[in-house]
């Protein structure tokens, strides 16, 4: 199993306040930024890009896979913290809810999952992808909250600080042996 795992936050979506966030596609700005980010990912030579099934993530993942000449697939469990029932929240309200989510990981703050439940689901999905692809260099394209929760548990990172740092798109390189972040590209 390769020593490094690349965790990528998707590009900026085309926001439609009438639709749930998990249905939003990648915006034109997101596509352009993803192309720039892919150039920064190339030196890490992922040969498989696996993404969340959410359109903004799968479109980001596909664009990266093409740019770095890697295989591409989607996987269940890599999606964002489940919050369909929360509906669209204005930026300030949304950010306050995310802060509360990180501060109270066992409490269902908004949406359908606690932070702990989202982190467990995401960790299980990453483990599954790794077991199915033991000799492949992986890039996982997902979402800011679950990536930050995972890094909090696996790299000792402050999840909330990480969440605030991750732009759309951005990536983190995680060293599996050292169990730490070795690179953070905040935004393309």
Structural class comes to: alpha/beta
Task: Write down the secondary-structure element order.
Answer: EHEHEHHEHHEE
In helices, the fraction of residues equals 40-55%
Spans of 5+ residues with little confidence (pLDDT < 50)? Answer: none
> Which value, in Å, is the CA radius of gyration?
15 Å
Distance linking N and C termini: 28 Å
Strand content: 15-25%
**Total DSSP helices:** 6
The pLDDT mean sits at 96
Overall geometry comes to globular
Major sheet size, sense and barrel closure: 6 strands, mixed
> How many individual β-strands?
6
Which strands sit side by side, in order, in the main sheet? 3-2-4-1-5-6
Query: What would you call the quaternary organization?
Result: single chain
Explain what the structure shows.
- The protein is of the alpha/beta class.
- It is built from 6 helices and 6 strands.
- A 6-stranded mixed sheet has the order 3-2-4-1-5-6, sandwiched between helices.
- Helix 4 crosses helix 5.
- The model has no long low-confidence stretch (mean pLDDT 96).
What attributes characterize this protein structure?
single chain; 188 residues; alpha/beta; six-stranded mixed sheet; 41% helix; 16% strand; globular
Would you summarize the structure shown here?
The chain is built from 6 helices and 6 strands.
């Amino acid at each position: 199993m390769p020593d490094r795992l690349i965790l990528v936050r998707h590009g900026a979506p085309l926001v439609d306040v009438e639709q749930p966030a998990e249905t939003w596609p990648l915006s034109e700005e997101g596509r352009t930024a993803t192309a720039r980010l892919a150039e920064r990912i190339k030196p890490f030579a992922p040969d498989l890009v696996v993404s969340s099934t959410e359109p903004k993530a799968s479109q980001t993942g596909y664009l990266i896979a093409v740019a770095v000449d890697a295989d591409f697939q989607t996987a269940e469990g890599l999606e964002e913290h489940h919050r369909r029932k929360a509906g669209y929240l204005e930026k300030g309200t949304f950010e306050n809810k995310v802060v509360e989510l990180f501060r109270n990981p066992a409490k269902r703050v908004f949406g359908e999952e606690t932070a702990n439940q989202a982190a467990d689901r995401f960790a299980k999905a990453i483990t599954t992808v790794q077991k199915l692809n033991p000799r492949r260099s992986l890039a996982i394209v997902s979402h800011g909250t679950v990536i930050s929760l995972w890094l909090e548990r696996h790299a000792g990172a402050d999840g909330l600080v990480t969440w605030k740092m991750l732009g759309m798109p951005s990536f983190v390189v995680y060293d599996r042996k050292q169990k730490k972040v070795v690179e953070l590209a905040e935004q393309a």
